[in-house]
């Protein structure tokens, strides 16, 4: 068995407590060795809950711990780059929650910090490590649905709590950064290209100022991605791919249940009204957060690349920046 990478967690964010910490505790390559919070009592409570050995009352204390090799950063979006930068300066590898930054310029600022410190920095797009998305890209590459021409998706939830960080403009709240970013990364992953230009429409909450309903068209050399995301619609998520000879649909595309298998639905003949051509591939149950942590820790131990490296995160943020610009200009914008 490999010597596990010792991880520290910055803050007790919901995503960390609900998903990432328990998943990484099931990892073959990772162990959660410490957690920090601005309120020591909160760090201690979370540490007790998960049996984490160390609890710190400040992020600085955790970063100064020589036993911590890597840091998971699930802080609010506006704190991603500052604390990822500090962690790198402290010699820690960093898995930073998505979106990596508030904009592409911020993300680019981490390149020098990473290279100077000789650490690894990656973006926590766990979907990119899930076996069903790896398999879906393989199906696209094989020509199973002909030439991929369209990736389409919807991701929505309802959250109007003004105290929730996702509804605070200064913290990087809003639908595009929280939900729409998944379609940006997955369409780039599937087309294996960067978008040439984008067009978007964005509606802001009149009180909180965050985008609550955003739709975008991303034009790739090979096709298009069309998606809608919202923080004030009934909860729903779906995603499908259309090619020149067939289609693929992914159930619960962003956060599938971890305790049961999931399906890839493939229709080789969409013109058949009987549905006789529809088949399914079953992907065994797994936890994409465990896989993400394993791959990152393995890259640290073996010297390989992390699942979603900094360069990829910069390209993703450049596309998101263009989507925001297009909503203001009402014009096509280039990333």
Relevant terms:
14 strands; 6-stranded parallel beta sheet; Rossmann fold; 34% helix; alpha/beta; 8-stranded mixed beta sheet; Dihydrodipicolinate Reductase, domain 2; 9 helices
The amount of beta strand, in percent, is 25-35%
When the domains are counted, the total is: 2
Order of helices and strands: EHEHEHEHEHEHEHEEEEEEEHH
CATH class of the largest domain, anyone? Alpha Beta
| C-alpha-based Rg, rounded | 20 Å
Fraction in helix: 25-40%
Q: State the total count of DSSP E strands.
A: 14
How is this structure best described in words?
With 335 residues, the chain is α/β, with parallel strands linked by helices. The chain has two domains: 5-127 and 290-307, Rossmann fold; 131-285, Dihydrodipicolinate Reductase, domain 2 (2-Layer Sandwich), CATH 3.30.360. It contains nine helices and 14 strands. The strands form two sheets. The protein has an eight-stranded mixed sheet, covered by helices on one side. A hairpin with a 6-residue loop joins strand 8 (197-204) and strand 9 (211-219). It starts with a strand and ends in a 6-residue tail after the last helix.
What's the gist of this structure?
Helices cover 34% and strands 27% of the residues. The mean pLDDT is 97.
């Amino acid at each position: 068995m490999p010597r596990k990478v010792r991880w520290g967690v910055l803050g007790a964010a919901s995503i960390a407590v609900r998903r990432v910490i328990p998943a990484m505790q099931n990892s073959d390559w990772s162990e959660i060795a410490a957690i920090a919070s601005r309120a020591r009592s909160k760090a201690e409570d979370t540490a007790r809950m998960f049996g984490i050995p160390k609890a710190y009352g400040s992020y600085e204390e955790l970063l100064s711990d020589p036993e911590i090799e890597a840091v998971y950063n699930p802080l609010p979006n506006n704190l991603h780059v500052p604390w990822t930068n500090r962690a790198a300066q402290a010699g820690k590898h960093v898995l930073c929650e998505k979106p990596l930054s508030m904009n592409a310029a911020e993300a680019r600022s981490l390149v020098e910090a990473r290279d100077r410190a000789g650490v690894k920095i990656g973006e926590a797009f766990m979907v990119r490590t899930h076996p069903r998305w790896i398999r879906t890209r393989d199906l696209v590459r094989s020509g199973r649905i002909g030439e991929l021409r369209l990736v389409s998706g919807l991701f929505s939830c309802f959250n109007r709590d003004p105290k929730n960080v996702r509804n605070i403009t200064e913290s990087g709240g809003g639908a595009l950064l929280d939900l729409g970013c998944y379609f940006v990364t997955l369409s780039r992953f599937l087309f294996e290209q960067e978008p040439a230009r984008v067009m978007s429409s964005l509606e802001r909450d009149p009180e909180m100022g965050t985008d609550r309903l955003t739709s975008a068209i991303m034009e790739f050399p090979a096709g298009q991605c069309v998606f809608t995301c919202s923080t004030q619609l009934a909860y729903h998520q779906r995603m499908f791919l259309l090619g020149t000879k067939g289609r693929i649909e992914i159930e619960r595309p962003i956060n599938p249940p971890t305790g049961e298998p999931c399906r890839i639905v493939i229709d080789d003949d969409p013109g058949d009204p009987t549905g006789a051509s529809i088949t399914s591939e079953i992907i065994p149950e797994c936890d994409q957060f465990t896989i993400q942590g394993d791959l990152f820790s393995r890259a640290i131990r073996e010297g390989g690349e992390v699942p979603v490296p900094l360069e990829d995160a910069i390209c993703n943020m450049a596309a998101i920046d263009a989507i925001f610009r297009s909503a203001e200009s009402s014009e096509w914008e280039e990333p």
